[in-house]
Design goal:
The complex is a heterodimer. By secondary structure, chain A is an alpha/beta fold. Chain A contains 14 helices and 15 strands. In chain A, strand 11 and strand 12 form a beta hairpin. In chain A, helix 6 crosses helix 7. Chain B has a single domain, classed as RNA polymerase II/Efflux pump adaptor protein, barrel-sandwich hybrid domain (OB fold (Dihydrolipoamide Acetyltransferase, E2P)), CATH 2.40.50. Classes of the chains: A alpha/beta, B alpha+beta.
Amino acid sequence: MPFIPHTKEDVHKMLKVLGIESVNALFDEIPSDLATASLEVFPEGFTEHEVSRLMMDRSPRLQPGLCFIGAGAYEHHIPAAVWEIATRGEFYTAYTPYQAEASQGSLQIIYEYQTMMAHLMGLGVSNASQYDGASALLEALLMAVRIKKGKAKRVVIPKTLHPFYRQVVKTILPYQELVIEEVPFCNDEGRILPQVLQEIEEEGLAAVVIAQPNFFGVLEDVDALTRVVHRKQALVIAVVNPLTVGLLKEPGLWGDGGADIACGEGQPLGIPLASGGPYMGFLTCKQQFLRQLPGRLVGRTVDAKNQPGFTLTLQAREQHIRRGKATSNICTNQGLMVIAATIYMSLLGAKGLRDVAAACHRNARVLKERLTQIEGVRSVFNAPFFHEFVIRLSKPVEQVVSHLSRSGIQAGYPLKKEYPQLGESLLVCATETKTDLDLERYQLLLEKVSYDERGESAC
Amino acid sequence: MSNHPSELYYTSTHEWLRDEGNHVYTVGITDHAQSLLGDIVFVELPELESDVDEGDEVAVVESVKTASDVYSPVAGEVIGINDALIDSPGAINRDPYGDGWLFRIRVGEEVQLDNFLDVAHYEEKISE
């Protein structure tokens, strides 16, 4: 993308007006011995991310420390252009358009967002977003029950799904007279075994949720799980981190028929960590389930003069038309977050998303390798992972975490509260934002806390 | 003026019912209903061989304006559905009593036809 304002043609036109051959001719009154030497004396350029990091490190008042907490919300480098563009007046005030077609720009960006999201997930359609990942999953489950025409009222969610997502689902679904069953994970691998799903009762089963990567950062065997669920005539709902799809198989290709619905948290796509939100949920599905997909959908069409334009479409089941029987009564979309995500995806492109995912994975592998070298620190699960992993400490995890926090390292998310059976375990995340020095620093500090017996009393 | 054949039975929710003999009834929506809905773009039909109760929401007719439930006027087993509507739902607009039929039901017990409206009463109702 050209960020330089003058194209070659612009420059050529201006030179022509001035009647000179080249830009250098403008400077010919400067004695040649005063001209600079070649540019070779300058050091190599930095990437935008490296420059931001350098400035942050040099600023004594802006020391945010190093965050290794993931657990559903992830720190990523966000190109400055994302929020520069998203906060332009034309985008910034965009609320769900009530006189929709008067807001062609809003409709166009939603249309582009939907197109990108559907492509990314390998599925036919996407809505204009939900509040967050958890509410997107909730809508996906309700959708699945509608698709089964109310004959199947049981849904299965794995214990490897984010605990907050499970709480949201448990808060709402029972009031729709739906039954939630939880399936346990394999203690060695930290993921769901296909044979565990195999044992689920088929009668009345509407859908099974598969998280990829799961809450522990572990990669589930999505192909095998999808096949088992489809053999039971139930729908597969994928909960995915959209950034991983650059490297991993998209949900539309899971198993033999692909996941039926894919949803998740869109925060990794250009939305900063900011006290828990606002974030955005994405919700996509196979074309055949289009009419059960809640929320806004934008289509491309032509107007009376045959000019291309955008329009809200398939509104017949929305709440302002069908009230009591709408597909959902919580369909406000996260307009501004969608705009940021769309700009983020456009700027990075397919290759950029893949590179970010690869850098995250690489950093997480290096960090895991480093941390598990420390005496008393063990890896908990023996399975492939993306950019998060679980370690078990020989000291009380809360003490270690608060100790490291004082040195500017947010070490991770302690799992004790939600998973007491995992003991003194810590969920650690490393994204592309971390340098090798950062990873080393974490290792050295954790080493110090682990070895230093006096450290325990200091905690 | 809408067209409502005199040999059919009607409901206040705008379904029509045709006695096909042998305890079989065909169900559709009335000409009045289709004209209120406008261009019909999508139809959801009941499952073949499913058992339905009187008053069950068994089908959905969706137009550009709204999606409307169709209630089964009788209890019984669905023995036929009009698959052709999936590709050409507009048949309901063009020919609501012919090509636009929705489903057929075989009833277990005798249907109390007195419970339905005849054409005069139906037309009186919709003119209210």
